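2024-03-11 09:14:02 INFO worker-7 job=invfold-0412 stage=load source=structure_tokens
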């Protein structure tokens, strides 16, 4: 009940703030069904493609946009279609590497993607993104200056920050009694079979590097091999390597602990109050996910309109409230419920931020090494006795059986000869 009251109050406050802080572009404004009072959008800007049968394809992470399942929050894609007339085809990827591989293999037809910081840099370097026409994205004015001109995209020429957060430990308080304060917990044998790990090389190896005291951006081959060996050592303890599957496993008490993007814990806690979040003392990854346009897009202006819509303060605020991540949009931040602003999951303490590192784009040689090491990790036996012994034992039985049969046959033959 209190949460519902808070939502109602925040919606009223939102409307008042919109009127004063975020005035409409002009008198001719449009809205969408279910919009909070006072919400409107520039019809001259958003009406450009209405009635022209235009569509865009958006490729985003799973569970990473408000889809209307929470009836009190906006369905972003539907609202965009209502306001602009542009149809949105929306699909998901599970990892940056999956998205990159798909586009690199020649997949076209995508107009908006949401890669993480280091992947933005890689795609810029490989000419996989279109430079943005910032005149078509007027809502850039709402992006906090500290998120503009980032290291991964100097000058913010190719991307617009979408959300930011950190990697944390998500754990079940019924299974893990003490608050975990170190990555060491992921190698604790008492949790064998109850540990989940990232199913992508960059995030997984970063954790091993931090446990060893190395930078998560190390390009030192020896350090990376040490990290890989540490993960091979950990493998017998791991229940599964996951991405979106973490939601079901943690919400249904199927695992005790997992490293994951802290913002997603907000959604998990709503379904399982036994879950909690902790930050390792060794430091963690602070990341920014950004909206960008693939070089193969045929609808750049419509794609830029979608990116602009994502940064309408009321849309950005409700979108972040749904996904649980922090917003780089200062006007949207002002519209968030107070409990979200005060959440140390969504907005971690400064001490966590200070001890964090942001991924940077690594050299092609290092990326190739990490891919190779990741393959080794996944293919490495958990133990000779768990998978190597059974097939060899079966083979030995077959050979022994054949030898026994031959010996028996020879004995019978000798007995027949003696007779």
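2024-03-11 09:14:09 INFO worker-7 stage=emit residues=419
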């Amino acid at each position: 009940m209190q949460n519902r009251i808070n939502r109602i109050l925040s919606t009223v406050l939102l409307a008042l703030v919109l009127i004063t802080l975020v005035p409409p572009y002009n008198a001719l404004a449009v809205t969408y069904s279910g919009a909070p009072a006072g919400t409107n959008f520039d019809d001259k800007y958003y009406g450009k493609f209405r009635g022209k049968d235009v569509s865009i394809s958006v490729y985003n992470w799973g569970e990473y946009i408000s889809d209307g399942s929470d009836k009190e929050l906006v369905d972003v894609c539907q609202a965009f279609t209502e306001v602009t007339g542009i149809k949105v085809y929306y699909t998901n990827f599970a990892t940056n590497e999956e998205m990159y591989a798909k586009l690199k293999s020649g997949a076209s037809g995508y107009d908006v993607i949401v890669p993480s910081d280091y992947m933005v840099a890689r795609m810029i370097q490989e000419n996989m993104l279109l430079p943005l026409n910032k005149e078509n994205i007027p809502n850039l004015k709402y992006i906090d200056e500290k998120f503009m001109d980032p290291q991964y995209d100097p000058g913010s020429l190719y991307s617009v920050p979408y959300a930011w957060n950190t990697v944390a430990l998500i754990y079940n308080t019924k299974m893990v009694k003490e608050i975990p304060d170190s990555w060491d917990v992921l190698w604790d044998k008492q949790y064998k079979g109850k540990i989940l790990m990232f199913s992508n090389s960059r995030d997984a190896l970063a954790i091993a590097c931090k446990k060893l005291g190395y930078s998560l951006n190390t390009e030192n081959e020896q350090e990376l091999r040490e990290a890989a060996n540490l993960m091979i050592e950990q493998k017998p303890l791991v229940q599964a390597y996951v991405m979106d599957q973490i939601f079901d496993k943690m919400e249904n008490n199927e695992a005790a602990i997992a490293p994951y993007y802290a913002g997603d814990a907000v959604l998990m806690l709503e379904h399982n109050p036994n879950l909690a979040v902790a930050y390792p003392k060794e430091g963690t990854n602070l990341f920014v996910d950004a909206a960008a346009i693939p070089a193969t897009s045929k609808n750049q202006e419509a794609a830029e309109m979608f990116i602009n819509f994502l940064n309408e303060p009321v849309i950005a605020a409700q979108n972040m409230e749904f996904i649980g991540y922090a917003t780089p949009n200062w006007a949207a931040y002002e519209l968030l419920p107070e409990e979200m602003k005060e959440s140390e999951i969504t907005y971690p303490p400064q001490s966590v931020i200070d001890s964090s590192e942001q991924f940077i784009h690594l050299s092609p040689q290092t990326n190739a090494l990490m891919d190779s090491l990741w393959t080794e990790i996944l293919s490495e036996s958990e133990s000779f006795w768990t998978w190597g012994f059974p097939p060899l034992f079966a083979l030995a039985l077959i050979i022994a059986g054949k030898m026994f049969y031959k010996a028996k046959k020879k004995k019978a033959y000798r007995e027949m000869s003696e007779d």
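2024-03-11 09:14:09 INFO worker-7 stage=report msg="The domain at 165-285+362-378 is CATH 3.40.190.10 (D-Maltodextrin-Binding Protein; domain 2)."
2024-03-11 09:14:10 INFO worker-7 job finished
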